[in-house]
Specification:
about 600 residues, alpha+beta
């Protein structure tokens, strides 16, 4: 958000195959379908897809009611595979139906020559088929399908491996050693001992399976504070699923009292006030801000230089804002708002206010200068609106749970210091762009091989480290490129679907860069508000009141949800944020009037 506009960021059945003619009739009679769940009617059961790239869809399908859809992203080609028991020195046919561009079907581990086949373009279902012979010592092969880097999602259905069956696969034993780690208010980390012969594990919360993972760790997310939960795990392979492990129970923490920052209404409206500039929408005096607004973020405190950490704030000059009030009147109006139960914060950053706390000196200057602003104006807390290049991750900084990049570490330290100084009533909000948060589902920093934008997901370590101090997170759901949701589909701004998918990610949590061992735990619903532009002039991605209401209906009541299915009913979602109060006034208060009129019951 800036003084003009917020920053724009951006693979069934039996087959007659000539290659099997040399087999004896008895051998042919022993041939059978070996692929498990090749039509994906049982979801992804039996299949493993890289980096969370695969999902089951009901349309388009080649046959039956389900098909695989997998989406390449970055350096991941969306490979989905299954390991299948076979016999040595035997002939097999691998086939399947695919749709999309550059879709591959192949096999590895044959012990002879691994084979594959592909299509450059299949706008409708196209059959791919290849044959191979196993080596003298081969007892299993891995069949796979994948797309290509930078291409859209592909679909696959009716995948088949036909030939003589191998020695029976044994059902794995039940996992042992299931342990719950240290819970947060919304998540519980789990670990267990590996089971020989298992290819995946199913995690159960009560009687509901909540995750399938290939490793021996998982994190249950989207939980309620101060609540006991019971978990069990099963092991699976091509023979099926083991009995459940012994249960383990863990109780989530209280979450720092449930409302860091003191009292906010159950439904809060947050707005940015152009206090230091006019921005074409006209200057709005603090005293003229309607009572609809529960949190007023003063835009902006800006640094004297990018790396100084020295933040300054002053009212809009009279030459730009002829109707600006005096500092005394401004401070008096702030006190009046606070007396009416409103919170007034200093927002640091915006597009023009790049802040990089690269040194401890900059960190300390940040604490000192921000404290001075808070004290001078009698403010309730701080909003972090770092944009552009303020936050990025150094190469090798790959785990959001333990960041090492100085600008990240110093920011966390600075905010914790401010929180300790001002106490439990200190209000902390954040307004990152989707690039810095939800994009982390696909990409995190420069990636394991380098070459990615180091800013991708860079807010995640800050949010995670401060989650027990965080009053509100309101991601900017605007001026954003398409972002992949938890359904592994891309969602575009401007309608209810985008806000539903983006908000559900914050509340359900997600594996960062597809790594199921590094899951960003979901936030509490009362810590989350949806960020939108107040008018078409305020930024790309303006959403009509009707679409805003549809998003709220879906997230809080599971009504009017469209195609995206949320991972919970988030009835205590805190509310909405907008850029900005000034632009809402310019647009005849359409945004705030709609918030006031919405039926939250």
């Amino acid at each position: 958000m800036d003084r003009t506009r917020p920053l724009t960021l951006l693979l069934a059945g039996a087959l007659a195959v000539g290659g099997l003619a040399a087999l004896t009739p008895a051998a042919q009679a022993a041939d059978s379908e070996l692929a498990r769940n090749g039509g994906f009617e049982a979801g992804l059961d039996g299949w493993n897809c890289t980096a969370g790239s695969g999902a089951v869809v009901s349309s388009p399908v080649h046959s039956g009611t389900k098909a695989l859809q997998a989406t390449p992203a970055g350096s991941d080609n969306a490979k989905c595979s299954q390991t299948i028991t076979v016999k040595p020195n035997a002939a097999y046919t691998l086939s399947g139906w695919v749709r999309g561009s550059y879709v591959y079907l192949g096999v590895t581990g044959t012990g002879t020559t691994d084979t594959s086949t592909w299509t450059q373009s299949a706008p409708d279902w196209q059959k791919l088929s290849t044959t191979f012979t196993t080596g003298a010592n081969t007892t299993s092969v891995t069949v796979y399908t994948h797309g290509w880097y930078g291409t859209p999602a592909y679909q696959a259905d009716d995948l088949s491996l036909y030939g003589p069956g191998g020695y029976p696969v044994q059902l794995p034993a039940a996992p042992t050693g299931l342990t719950a780690g240290s819970p947060t208010a919304t998540s519980v980390p789990l670990s267990w001992t590996a089971v020989p012969g298992a290819t995946s594990y199913h995690v159960y919360q009560g009687t509901t399976m909540i995750q399938t993972v290939t490793g021996t760790t998982a994190t249950a997310t989207g939980l309620t504070a101060s609540t006991p939960y019971t978990f069990q795990v099963t092991a699976a392979n091509s023979a099926g699923e083991s009995p459940k492990s012994a249960p383990v129970t863990a109780t989530t923490t209280s979450g720092g009292g449930g409302n860091p920052g003191g009292t906010l209404p159950a439904r809060a409206l947050v707005g940015y006030l152009h206090a230091s500039f006019a921005n074409g929408s006209g200057y709005t005096r603090m005293a003229d801000v309607p009572d609809s607004w529960d949190v007023i973020n003063l835009a902006f405190g800006e640094p004297t230089s990018v790396t100084s950490g020295d933040i300054r704030f002053s009212l809009c000059p009279a030459t730009e804002c002829p109707n600006v009030e005096s500092p005394a009147d401004f401070k008096a109006a702030i006190k009046a708002k606070q007396a009416a139960g409103k919170k007034v914060l200093i927002s640091i950053g915006g597009q023009n206010g790049q802040v990089q706390l690269a040194t401890t000196a900059a960190r300390d200057a940040f604490v000192t200068s921000v404290s001075k602003i808070i004290d001078e104006y009698g403010l309730d807390g701080l909003d972090i609106d770092f944009e552009g290049h303020s936050l990025s991750l150094q190469t090798g900084d790959t785990d959001f749970r333990s960041p090492t990049t100085p600008v990240i570490v110093h920011l966390i330290q600075a905010i914790k210091t401010l929180k300790a100084k001002y106490g439990a009533k200190f209000v902390l909000t954040m307004a990152p762009e989707t690039f810095f948060v939800q994009l982390g589902y696909q990409f995190y920093g420069s990636g394991p091989w380098g070459g990615q934008d180091p800013r991708a997901g860079a807010y995640l370590p800050v949010i995670h480290a401060l989650r027990d101090d965080l009053t509100l997170l309101h991601v900017q759901d605007y001026n954003s490129g398409p972002i992949m949701g938890l359904d592994n589909q891309y969602h575009s701004m401007g309608g209810a679907d985008f806000h539903i998918a983006m908000t559900d990610m914050l509340l359900a949590g997600f594996p960062v860069a597809g790594n199921t061992a590094r899951v960003f735990p979901g936030l509490r619903p009362d810590q989350v508000a949806i960020g939108l532009p107040a008018s078409t002039q305020a930024g790309n991605g303006h959403t009509t009141p009707a679409e805003v209401n549809k998003a709220l209906d879906c997230l809080t009541r599971k009504q009017n949800c469209g195609t995206y299915q949320t991972h919970g009913t988030w009835s205590s979602l805190r509310g909405l944020m907008t850029w900005s109060i000034n632009w809402d006034r310019f647009n005849q208060w359409e945004f705030s009037r709609n918030f006031d009129a919405y039926d939250w019951s």
